[in-house]
Design goal:
The chain is mainly alpha-helical. It is about 50% helix and about 10% strand.
């Protein structure tokens, strides 16, 4: 229970800090409904999820552009398509996973890097 609470707190912290610094966000993980505390899925308007994941990984933030079970698949997420019926949203989605071993400092750094990468990618689109 302690680990779950810590993970959920970090997830909420990251959501709030990204929300304050980046516009055009679509949260694919529910805020209030039951959810897995260690997974956060978010789409950024005008940014490809794969490009964002690659750019962030080069800066030390490991995120994914799709579900682990569809690694290497070029199709948009079938789950996000079923939820929202929006291919652009599905293709711009990233998945952030948390562990009880993560720290608030790591979340702070990740939020900063994600925001910077989104800004850079939007500037070149």
């Amino acid at each position: 229970e302690e680990n779950t609470e810590k993970i959920n707190d970090m997830r909420c912290w990251l959501m709030l800090h990204i929300d304050k610094t980046v516009s055009g966000i679509k949260w694919n993980t529910p805020f209030e409904e039951p959810h897995l505390p260690h997974i956060l899925n978010v789409s950024f308007d005008g940014v490809g999820g794969k490009a964002l994941a690659l750019m962030c990984s080069k800066r030390g933030v490991m995120i994914s552009a799709g579900a682990a079970c569809t690694s290497g698949d070029n199709a948009p997420s079938h789950v996000l398509m079923a939820m929202f019926n929006d291919e652009a949203r599905a293709r711009s989605a990233i998945r952030i996973s948390f562990s009880h071993e993560n720290t608030v400092e790591e979340c702070e750094q990740a939020a900063k890097i994600i925001a910077e990468c989104v800004t850079q990618l939007r500037a070149i689109s």
